[in-house]
Design a protein that fits this description.
By secondary structure, this protein is an alpha+beta fold. Among the domains are: about 80-175, Sandwich (Immunoglobulin-like), CATH 2.60.40.10; about 595-665, Immunoglobulin-like, CATH 2.60.40; about 670-925, Beta-galactosidase, Chain A, domain 5 (Distorted Sandwich), CATH 2.70.98.30; about 940-1023, Immunoglobulin-like (Sandwich). Helices cover about 20% and strands about 30% of the residues. The protein has 17 helices and 56 strands. A nine-stranded antiparallel sheet has the order 34-35-36-37-46-43-42-39-40. Strands 21, 23, 24, 27, 47 and 48 form a six-stranded antiparallel sheet that branches. It is elongated and about 115 Å long.
Length: about 1000
């Protein structure tokens, strides 16, 4: 789905007209529409066309096959056909011909210096056998001829000698034929699903929906073919199926159902091709919800995931596999555009084990999904020039197919000591392309000509079933995060990324409040639809192929608006669902002149937090009391909000507070001066000239945790040159909040790349937290740029850890080799810890960061095989929050402007404690929810949850109304016990392990265990 989504193999000949326009990104080399002559000019100069692991001598495409006749080369220039050949060369292959009904090892005989036009005799001497065959005259000339060798298969290197007599001349050649295996090659037909990119989303969807109809027709037509050649279609993303079924007639729905049951249409579990490390745990789970419901409805098993284009995937996918039912994961990534060294995983399958060691998924990264485009799709006339392309019949299904690419590819696998006798290639004509209707006929003809490699049209499930059945005991087991590469692009729309992340947290809180209150009428469908919006914003297609080269193109504008709407709609829907969760029980108010508000703690642990009451809900005064009449510390803020300190808010609960005339309770005050702040726990000082934090002290800890360069530095990097980094200008610092509860300093500075920069530092009396609020008013700049906030901590012997979906990892130590180390994507926190002390850094808004001497992420272009990709992360106590960039050359946004705010939270601590750090991260992302009072004055979840090192990732009502669902995570490396107890001693609990369909898998006791680093989904209901 990127400028280099597709590649040409060495020697490929394009025969497209000058009038045929095509997105450069579809050819993988460029990213705008240009005339074909410009494409060819760039192709001749572009060195990135070489496909890793491919050693083809020149890709030419044979004409029709005839067992003992020559292979004719398509598209030859007749003006050059009269030159006679000067010599012959023998090229061993791994193939076996079907020669008179028996397998015969194949060697390709190549004519040098011209072609063979006259009749000829070929004499072969091989492995103790002699044989001969006649080459008939051919007016078009023969360039290559496939020789069937005599005798049985060899088990050692064996020399072949060939003598050819033609036109009164004798030509000889020798070669060494090595042993080879009998190959099965599985071909998986699909069309890569970009939600947009090649055209507006509605046009793209129409192509994919039409592909389903066409696939059913082709499968019916080929039902009588040999099993290997019978057509199967893989829909790739269930977004297509979801939309197809929503629009289909009853007749079409029935036909689709029958096609699925017959195996003509194959469904994989994921809703879309997604940046999985950018999705929250709840989103990652919901990615498979549609597939689970379809599987149940159709009475089938969906236990496969296919991801196209995106290099890398979150380890969290494996952690949740017991909940989603996923057992197999096929990745068919981009060929070489910003993929780092991930190509090293090509054709190296392994059982991918989760952090607990209890779950595993069989993972295979195939060759890039663009092979079908390279070999055939790129040669279909006017493939991308019409609005509504249909399947294209060339009438010559064997042309532009797998000969000779497949022979060279398999030979390379053998050279690399590939241990298996089977592999898989995907077959897509391009991104959002019509189906290849001729594939079954090409496969049928291939298998009639060759006994090996045998081609098998497959689904993902069939391939993995066959592979595991034959090789299960030989497949290695690996664990670690396959750190993604393409998350950098999400910072090209920093505002929308923050909106989406915040909406995800808000939706999670809405579900928790519904469970806390035990309300009836839980709108499960509305929640599902909102989760889908959130997932689709994280889907890997962000814009048009020309989003960078021509961002004002009407289609480019329309595609971004469509994409942006996912985040905006998710925000609106999550806000509405949060409102609906907090109202409905008819609270009538209290005494005259007194207002009441409810505060929800949507976390599974008790917390102390600053609560901000909107001005409209706090007109009665500035004094806040709890239900016992106790006065609480409070302060009217400069924003008009009334802030108060709520202590020991119970887990999963609602507490009521009242607002009165008067002032808040006294406590040890937080103080602020022109350049410093203190809340009795932290002491913070800023540089008067820069506004950077040069002192970060915590009571009870020795030393300054801020490096001398200062924390929260703003940096702007034009292009990719660290030497050109610019910094914010002279600081204008003033006091905003004066205490006694909340104090803050605001630092306003001019900033390169922005109209303005404001950084607020805030401390709250009695709270263990430093809050930073950075607001950029960005200027739209089309030239390449990166914006960072840099945090150089002073922590000796630092190890960097960060949160991922369903857990956390240590950078470098918990990463698979050949994965991204230039930048990282955090869910809720990053922690920098030495032996005795550390700092937890958290941002709900800005997910990307770099480790160590920055910048490591300022990379331009495709960077195939670039030395700038880092292979090892040196642990350093320096974190750079990469908030904005426009470094991509396609798909992502060219520029961004306007106001975007980034929140950061810092907490100094002792030795690293995963449970504490996770709790802090949850608190930063899921603050107390404040609403007008409604219903009973106090509400809480109907049971208690206890367990050391355990946190509740998510809580929401069961869709059927029977109890609640929760996902529990063990942060420690050893088994932990969880105990659930009813708050009503007369009401017992029904507890069962559950899954994505909310089924009761098996009953659990009140106390049960979770393995170290493991997760579990549980349903709890009243008996």
């Amino acid at each position: 789905m990127r400028a280099s989504s597709h590649f040409l193999l060495p020697g490929t000949i394009l025969t497209l007209s000058d009038q045929f326009q095509i997105p450069f990104r579809i050819l993988k080399y460029v990213c705008m529409f240009v005339h074909m002559k410009h494409i060819i000019a760039k192709l001749l100069l572009c060195s990135c066309f070489l496909a890793a692991g491919v050693s083809a001598r020149g890709l030419k495409f044979p004409g029709t096959y005839n067992r003992d006749l020559a292979l004719y080369q398509a598209g030859a220039d007749l003006s050059q056909q009269q030159a006679p050949f000067t010599s012959i060369e023998l090229q061993p292959t791994i193939a076996y011909l079907n020669h008179h009904g028996a397998p015969a090892r194949m060697v390709r005989m190549h004519f040098h210096g011209g072609k063979s036009y006259q009749s000829a005799m070929v004499y072969m001497y091989f492995n103790g056998h002699e044989d001969s065959l006649a080459l008939p005259a051919n007016p078009d000339g023969i360039q290559d001829y496939e020789l069937p060798l005599p005798g049985e298969a060899v088990d050692k290197d064996t020399q072949l000698f060939v003598r050819l007599q033609s036109g009164g001349q004798t030509y000889t050649a020798r070669c060494i034929v090595s042993p080879t295996r009998q190959w099965n090659v599985y071909l998986m037909p699909h069309s890569h699903v970009d939600v947009g990119y090649t055209n507006v989303q509605a046009k793209v969807l129409a192509i994919h929906m039409n592909n389903i109809d066409e696939a059913i027709k082709i499968a019916a037509r080929t039902a009588g073919y040999p099993p290997e050649a019978r057509f199967k279609w893989n829909t790739e993303a269930l977004w297509v199926v979801d939309k197809y079924l929503a629009a289909a007639s009853d007749e079409k729905k029935q036909a689709f159902r029958e096609a699925v049951k017959k195996g003509w249409i194959n469904l994989d579990g994921a809703y879309a091709n997604t940046n999985t490390s950018a999705t929250s745990p709840a989103q990652l789970l919901q990615l498979f919800a549609t597939g689970a419901r379809l599987a149940k409805d159709y009475g089938i098993t969906i236990n496969t995931m296919f991801q196209g284009d995106v290099p890398g995937a979150s380890w969290g996918l494996i952690s949740q596999s017991a909940i989603t039912g996923m057992k197999y994961f096929l990745s068919a990534p981009n060929a070489n555009d910003r993929i780092g060294s991930s190509g090293q995983w090509r054709d190296k399958p392994f059982y991918w084990q989760d952090a607990s060691g209890k779950q595993q998924v069989l993972f295979w990264q195939s060759s890039p999904y663009s092979i079908g485009y390279t070999l055939k799709g790129s040669k279909i006339p006017n493939f991308f020039t019409i609005e509504d392309p249909k399947p294209y019949y060339t009438g010559k299904p064997s042309e532009n197919f797998l000969n000779p690419y497949l022979f060279d590819y398999l030979s390379q696998l053998e050279h690399n000591h590939f241990p298996y006798n089977m592999t898989l290639l995907t077959w897509a004509m391009s991104d959002n392309a019509p189906i290849d209707p001729e594939l079954p006929d090409a496969v049928k003809a291939w298998n009639e000509r060759y006994t090996s490699p045998k081609l098998i049209i497959t689904s993902v499930k069939q391939f993995f079933h066959d592979f595991e059945a034959g090789w299960k005991d030989k497949i290695p087991v690996l664990s670690g995060d396959y750190t993604e590469y393409w998350t950098d692009g999400i910072a090209s729309a920093a505002k929308e990324t923050a909106i989406n992340r915040n909406a995800s947290d808000r939706l999670q809180q809405a579900g928790a409040i519904w469970a806390i209150r035990g309300k009836s009428g839980y709108p499960a469908d509305s929640f599902r639809n909102t989760w889908t919006d959130l997932i689709m914003f994280n889907e890997h297609t962000w814009g048009a192929f020309n989003s960078v080269s021509n961002p004002q193109d009407p289609k480019a504008v329309a595609q971004w608006q469509f994409k942006q709407a996912f985040a905006l709609d998710a925000r609106a829907r999550s806000e509405a669902l949060l409102r609906s969760s907090t109202n409905g029980n008819g609270y009538t108010g209290s005494a005259t002149g007194v207002q009441a508000i409810d505060v929800y703690n949507t976390l599974g642990h008790s917390r102390t937090a600053l609560v901000r009451i909107p001005a409209a809900l706090s007109t009665s005064g500035d004094l806040v009391k709890d239900l016992n009449g106790r006065k609480l510390p409070s302060q009217r803020l400069s924003t008009g909000e009334l802030a108060f300190l709520a202590t020991a808010l119970p887990p999963f609960s609602k507490q009521r507070f009242t607002i009165h005339a008067g002032n808040g309770a006294s406590l040890k005050k937080a103080t602020v001066t022109d350049y410093s702040l203190d809340n009795g726990i932290y002491s913070v000082r800023v540089d008067p000239k820069t506004g950077n934090i040069t002192q970060l002290l915590k009571k009870g800890y020795s030393g300054n945790f801020a490096d001398s360069a200062g924390l929260n530095q703003y940096t702007y990097m034009p292009g990719d040159s660290a030497e050109k980094i610019q910094y914010s200008g002279p600081a204008d610092i003033h006091i905003k909040e004066k205490g006694p509860l909340v104090v803050s300093l605001v630092i306003n500075t001019p900033a390169p790349g922005a109209r303005s920069l404001s950084r607020e530092i805030q401390l709250t009396a009695g709270t263990d937290q430093v809050t930073l609020i950075n607001t950029i008013d960005k200027t739209a700049i089309g030239s390449k740029e990166s914006v960072h906030f840099v945090f150089p901590f002073r922590i000796p012997g630092a190890q960097v850890r960060y949160s991922i979906p369903w857990g956390s990892i240590a950078a470098e130590a918990d990463q698979l080799p050949h994965t991204n180390r230039n930048w990282y994507t955090q869910q809720r926190w990053v922690d920098v810890s030495g032996k005795n002390t550390g700092v937890t850094w958290s941002s709900p808004d800005a997910p990307l960061f770099e480790i160590g001497q920055y910048p490591t992420a300022g990379l331009l272009g495709g960077l195939h095989s670039s030395p700038r990709w880092i292979s090892f992360t040196e642990q350093q106590p320096l974190i750079s929050s990469w908030v904005m960039n426009n470094l991509w050359h396609t798909n992502f946004r060219r520029d961004q402007e306007g106001i975007t705010t980034f929140h950061y939270y810092l907490q100094v601590h002792g030795p690293f404690d995963a449970a504490d750090v996770n709790n802090n991260g949850l608190e930063n992302h899921l603050p107390p929810v404040v609403t007008a009072a409604d219903g009973a004055p106090s509400e809480s979840l109907f049971f208690n949850i206890s367990g050391k090192n355990i946190y509740v990732e998510n809580l929401y009502p069961a869709a059927d109304g029977n109890g609640v669902l929760l996902q529990l995570v063990n942060t420690s490396g050893h088994t932990a016990t969880v105990t659930l107890t009813s708050k009503n001693k007369s009401t017992a609990l029904n507890i069962s392990e559950s899954d994505i369909l909310e089924t009761n898998k098996h009953t659990l006791p009140d106390s049960f265990t979770i393995p170290g680093k493991g997760i579990i989904m549980v349903r709890v209901a009243k008996k």
